[in-house]
Amino acid sequence: MRILLTGGNGLVGKNFLEHPGIRSLEVLSPSSSELDLLDAAKVKDYLEDRRPDLIIHAAGTVGGIQANMREPVRFFLENLDMGRNLVWSSRQAGIRRLINLGSSCMYPRNAANPLREESILTGELEPTNEGYALAKITIARLCGYINQEDPGYHYKTLIPCNLYGRWDKFDPVHSHMIPAVIHKVHEAKAAGKNEVEIWGDGTARREFMSATDLADCLVRAVHSFDAMPMLMNVGLGQDHTINEYYQAIAQVVGYTGRFVHDLSKPIGMKQKIVAIERLSAWGWKSKISLQDGLNETYQFYLKHVRTA
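The structure assignment produced for this chain is given below.
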C-alpha cells in the first residue's frame, strides 16, 4: 500500500515514521520544498503523478496559545489553504481514502465535557485559538461534504486531544504547553531559580497524549480503515490540572523549587477532554502513561535540544 503522509517533519509525522507498523507500507513523506501544500497546482500534479492509495494529512501551522493569539491570520489561512488544496486535489485525482487530522480546538468553548464529536459547530469557539480552529473545522466539513456527495469516497477526520512527545517544539515562542514547561523548568533548575511561574491559577484541566500513541492509532487506522468512523476523537479519557502537569514535569526534571501563579494571564478553556466512546468501540486505546511519556520527552529534549 502506498501512503502519502503530509507533515512528515512535524511532531506527528516523525513519530509515525518511527513506528515499526509501517514497515510493510510504502510511505511517501515529501518535505515542504518537495510538495508545497500552499500551491494548489503543485499539489494536484503531485497526486496525479504519485497516485497514493491513502493520504494522511498531518501537516499544519501549529503553535501554543501565545503564537495563536499573536498570529491568527497566518494560523487561519495557512491551515485552511493546506487542507483545502490537499483534500480537493485528492477528490479531483480520484483518490478515495484520506485521513485528515483535526484538533480538539474545534470544539465550542462552553461545550460539555467530555467533548463529543456531534457537538462541533454547536457554540462559540475559544477566542485564543479561533483562527486555527475555524480552519480545522472547515477542512473536516469539506471531507464530510465529499463523502456525502459521493459515497465511494471515504475522507475521515481524527480529532486528537493535546499532544506532546519526541520531536516536539521546545522553543517558547512556538511550543505547546508540555514542551514549553519542560524547557522552562529545566532552565530554572540549571539557573538555580527557586520559583517558576504558571499562567493563571493552574486549575484548568487538560488532556495530553503522547504523539507516539497517536502514531500507533494512525497505523491502526491505515490497517483498519474501513471499520473506522468518519469522525472520531483520539484521546485518553482522563485529564489533569495544569498544576499537576507542572508537578509531574518537575519530578521528571528533578526540580525542587516552588510554583507561583500569574492570574493576569489567559488560560483558555477551563477543561478540555475528549469523549472516547467511538474510539473504544473501534478497538484502540492509549498505551503510554503520563510518567513514561514525560520521561521519554525529557530525554529527547536533553539529547536533541540542549546539545544542539
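Interim note for the steering committee: DSSP finds ten helices and 13 strands in the chain. The longest strand covers residues 154-160.
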